[in-house]
Design goal:
- The protein is α/β, with parallel strands linked by helices.
- The protein has a single domain (2-125), classed as NAD(P)-binding Rossmann-like Domain (Rossmann fold).
- Helix content is 37%, strand content 15%.
- It has helices at residues 10-21, 37-43, 75-88, 103-115, 131-140; strands at 2-6, 25-30, 65-68, 92-95, 119-122.
- A 5-stranded parallel beta sheet has the order 2-1-3-4-5, covered by helices on one side.
- Helix 3 (75-88) links the parallel strand 3 (65-68) and strand 4.
- The radius of gyration is 19 Å and the shape is globular.
């Protein structure tokens, strides 16, 4: 699979490392934070920062998927990029949280729903060991804490 990086951060670098280990290649890079430049040189076939040509990613023939991190873009630019990418139906995996406001998420989801594209978030805390147990407690109730509605029937 040919991947693009649009904005770097620690989560994106970890994802690219895992993707390379699985046999995928990073063929396009843009918006590399200066602190990530050395790592990107090791991970990408061509580490030239192509941030000014990010619209090439809208062509589904360029890459199979885009990994989107914080990089150096403003929130406004990143919102515009993600809305356009989602509208074109290019698969994208976004480091979460990417925005401080929830409004861009709604706008991106509206664009995604029209194209039926894949927009997925990546949150490394989701893999937190207690997350499964906590979600079960929220769904089913805790065995000893909280109100048990069946006890009063």
């Amino acid at each position: 699979m040919k991947l693009a990086i649009l904005g770097t951060d620690i989560d994106i670098l970890r994802l690219v490392t895992a993707a390379r280990a699985a046999g995928h290649e990073c063929v396009w890079v843009g918006e590399v934070r200066p602190s990530d430049a050395n790592a990107v040189r090791e991970l990408a076939a061509d580490a030239t920062d192509r941030a000014n040509t990010w619209e090439l990613l809208l062509d589904r023939g360029t890459v199979d998927g885009i990994l989107v991190g914080h990089g150096v873009a403003t929130a406004e630019l990143r919102t515009e990029q993600l809305k356009r990418i989602a509208a074109e139906g290019v698969p994208v995996l976004v480091a979460h949280p990417i925005f401080e406001s929830v409004l861009p998420y709604y706008e991106i989801d509206m664009a995604r729903s029209e194209s039926r594209g894949i927009v997925q978030h990546y949150n490394p805390l989701f893999e937190f060991p207690a997350a499964l147990r906590l979600s079960q407690w929220v769904r089913d109730g805790h065995p000893t804490i909280g109100y048990d509605s069946s006890a009063h029937l």
